[in-house]
Amino acid sequence: MGVDWSSRGYHAQRWAARGALLAAALAVATPLVYGGLRGLLLLVLGVAGLGLSAAAVWWTLTLRGPLRWGAALVAVCVPAGLLTLFAVTLFWALLVSLALWGLAVWSGRYALRRTGGHTPARERRLPPPRKPVLIMNPRSGGGKVGRFRLREKAERLGARVVLLEPGQQHDVTELARRAVADGADLLGAAGGDGTQALVAAVAAEHDVPFLVISAGTRNHFALDLGLDRGDPAACLDALTDGVELRVDLGFAGDQPFVNNASFGAYAAIVQSPAYRDDKIGTSLEMLPDLLTGQQGPRLLVRAGDNTLTAPQAVLVSNNPYRTGDPFGLGRRERLDSGTLGVLGVKVEGAISAAALLLNPDPAGLTVLTAPEVVIEADRDEIEAGVDGEAMVLPAPVHCRIAPGALRVRVPRKRPGVAPAPPRLDWRRLRKLAATVGRTAAPTHLHWPRHRSRHAEDHKETTPPGGPSDT
Fold it and tell me: Distance between CA 239 and CA 229 in Å, rounded?
């Protein structure tokens, strides 16, 4: 009986799970053994300090005057004091513990890695466009259009460029529709994600390819498409050597979005005229009333069979964001799942704020997916931030996703999207580490072609996966 190579990989994963559990146990035990009773007291003190720090942050955001500054001092000094105390008392043990924890995380992710991985979006090779039209905002990204000479390079490649003149009001949607009416067979946008969404909606409406040029400040959509955010000019390679992807497009009411639509505290703050000139000061001035419910609408969110009552903030995204990877927050693993991501935050006080930090599954944080989301309010209009653009939408706001509605043309050679590491699930690791022998191997075993008469006689009674299914 020959075992295929994936079985060996499974055994390696099983031993990696055992190594991860051992390293995690040693990471916790090392400072306790090194410090004895003092180490145990420090551990309890550290947990209490983290909870106090989270509560102090909540007080900083919801109080005014001297009490706010006192809470801010606590939020800064408590973590700093804990780090100093741990470093002085358990210096070497702390370093060893951190190294062991790093090993546990690496081994655990190796053990839980996906055997198949995420299937990337299918690429289509199509001939270059004949009449591409690119809309460029020279103010976006601190002047990236001029700094990278995007207009000149695009025109050399045969594209017609529509430049949004500074100081003038432009209807980007109308400009894009006029370009299609004039025969454009590709629409592109060099600007922020708000501009990208408007042009993308017209491209989807007329089923023409859309070209993303990462000339904005953050360029989240370009990042999740695997484009080079540091060199917007590289995006123009798609005009001559490009492939096409099918991705989803989100809508909040009639407003399209390529990234997300936010409601609640943040959406209310960005409406303020003072926000652009003084973001921190404006936020600190408005947050106490917004977070305590004295100002702003009372929201009700319906997503599938789930209902979220009175959250302070809601984020509806075009495909869900990663939540299990702290280094991948704000990233989407894919843009073609056909579902909206929903993040809701409801904090009712200092204890609830501490639970957000200490509880691995806090009640105040809602993470789910749904094809449609309805945002209701106790007023006729709801403030929203749609791809970073402040606007007011009539209530209720129906958020939906149009699966595969957008044809995006990207360079054939591009950085790409790094796959998300698997989320550490200690329960799964324990189950994986506890399996023995071949009884848990998920792979099928290959039987030799010259089977024995005994094997033929029992072919009907053996389970479909062979002994590995028992």
Answer: 17
